[in-house]
Amino acid sequence: MRRWTYLDLELSALGTLVALVLQLAQTTPLLRIPLTLMEFFLWAGYGLFALIYPARQRPEPLVQLFVIPLYGTALSGLTLIVLGLRDAFVFPLLAWAPAGVILAVLLAAGWRRRRLPEAERFALAPTSLRSIGLYSLGGVLIALVLLEGEHLFAYRERYTTFFLLGPGGRFGNYPTQLTPHQKVDLRAGLQNEEGRALRYQLVVQEGSAHQQLLTPLVAPGHTYLFPPLTLPTHHPGPQELLWQLYRVGSSKPLATLSLRYTVR
């Protein structure tokens, strides 16, 4: 009877790739979260299990039920700790690293299985109940990609809105004439419409002096407000403040806002 020697590994790799695509595309959580959990705990654990047990002789199915999620937790957790990617669950751009490790483990499991004599390799019979279940899983994964295709590949404009709130937290009403030591607070903010979670850096410049502010990870569609800034009014004369917004790691500003006012 013909047997599928690598079907289990191939479908685990397919599931990992589908989960990675859904993470990068930031699709609906109803699909993305369950598949991400399966990637980190099921497919990662099965890859490590298949690497350790490449032959037909394996622990009992009940033992596998407990061992595979434990292996997945260990492999995924170690990957995130070593690579410093603890935010991979919420930062899609970093999701490729755990997926790459899982795929590498699955590839190593296939290589080790291939080195065994054919009669000793673990394989699935096409008519076995387990094979039928794996066929069904593969079909479901492919169907998910097809169902999400329009969302994944449709054009979406990606941008970050950068704004400045005047006194009272309202748009407009920005001061142009101030008296010495008058206290006026302004507040910069942003809205992330980039389709992925990002960290931002704000540089506020007054003449040759400047200060830098960093945001936490801002999720797609979320708004972040920086702490209020009191306008400098210690020295009379014309003043100008610049607010420059950057993505963390980029040297090119996303947006620049300026305010000119006179102290007298």
Describe the overall structure.
Helix content is 42%, strand content 21%. The chain has helices at residues 7-25, 29-52, 61-83, 96-114, 129-153, and strands at residues 159-165, 177-178, 185-193, 200-206, 209-214, 223-225, 229-230, 237-247, 255-263. The strands form 2 sheets. Strands 2-9-8-4-5 form a 5-stranded mixed sheet, with no helix packed on it. Strand 8 and strand 9 (255-263) form a beta hairpin. The N and C termini lie far apart (94 Å). Residues 86-90 have low confidence and may be disordered.
Major sheet description: 5 strands, mixed
- Provide the structure class: alpha+beta
Number of strand segments: 9
Overall, the morphology is rod-shaped
Range of strand content: 15-25%
Q: Radius of gyration, Cα only, in angstroms?
A: 27 Å
Question: Secondary-structure element order, as H and E?
Answer: HHHHHEEEEEEEEE
Low-confidence stretches: 86-90
Number of helical segments with 4 or more residues: 5
**Which strand order spans the largest sheet, edge to edge or round the barrel?**
2-9-8-4-5
Q: Helical percent range?
A: 40-55%
On the 0 to 100 scale, the average pLDDT is 78
Give the tally of structural domains: 2
- Terminal residue distance: 94 Å
Essential attributes:
264 residues, alpha+beta, Immunoglobulin-like, 2 domains, 5-stranded mixed β-sheet, 4-stranded antiparallel β-sheet, 9 strands, 42% helix, 21% strand, rod-shaped
